Amino acid sequence: KRNTAFGSVGRRIPYRILHVINQDGESLGNMHRADALKLMDQHNLKLVLLKENVEPPVYRLMTGQQIHEEQLRRAEKKKASPKPGVVQKELSFSSAIAKNDLEIKTKQIAQWIDKKYHVKVTIRQAKGSNADMSMLFDQILETVSEKATYLSKPKVTREGVSACILRHMSDKELKAHQKMGNQKNSTVKKDENENVKSNELHQ
């Protein structure tokens, strides 16, 4: 099986006839590979294989920037899609959710995280509400921050709707998180001790 990584194929084209799409996404029809390479050189573009298992195979002329953006988009999509064998649960609610309802939802998230599930959280902006969506996501993460982190950070998926995906931390991440927590605690204790000392001096 050929490497299916998205990127420029250079000048290595095993097919004689190609279906070519230009950088604006418009079809230029079928053409000989020599003509496709000529176009590529004339416009200083790169050829990318889009579909191989069709007749003729589909190639697209793209700029380096377009290729880079598409690679990032695919990487983000891959990251957000659950790995084989990983269960992904979903919860969605409105930004106007009542405090006790939110507590019930976060408890459910914590239970799923304990089972090493991925949890997709979708929040819809309630009509007339100007609730800060990012604060809501932070609040949810805070309740499970001892064991969970973002697999995919909160982002707007469509107008008025934002989503994130939470996952259980790896053992390595958990150790690092606990270490940070211990350092924080020892700093707080040190400050408290110094406060006590300064109080004793003042008395």
UniProtKB/TrEMBL annotation:
A GO BP annotation: ribosome disassembly
Keywords from the UniProt entry: Initiation factor, Protein biosynthesis
Comp. bias intervals (Basic and acidic residues): 188-203
Pfam families: IF3_N
Family matches, as InterPro entries: T_IF-3_C_sf, T_IF-3_N_sf, Translation_initiation_fac_3, Translation_initiation_fac_3_N
GO (cellular component) term, any one: mitochondrion
Keyword Protein biosynthesis: yes
Region entry Disordered, spans: 175-203
GO molecular function, one term: translation initiation factor activity
Ranges where the Translation initiation factor 3 N-terminal domain occurs: 10-76
Entry similarity comment: Belongs to the IF-3 family.
NCBIfam families for the chain: infC
Listed name of the protein: Translation initiation factor 3 N-terminal domain-containing protein
Organism: Manacus vitellinus (golden-collared manakin)
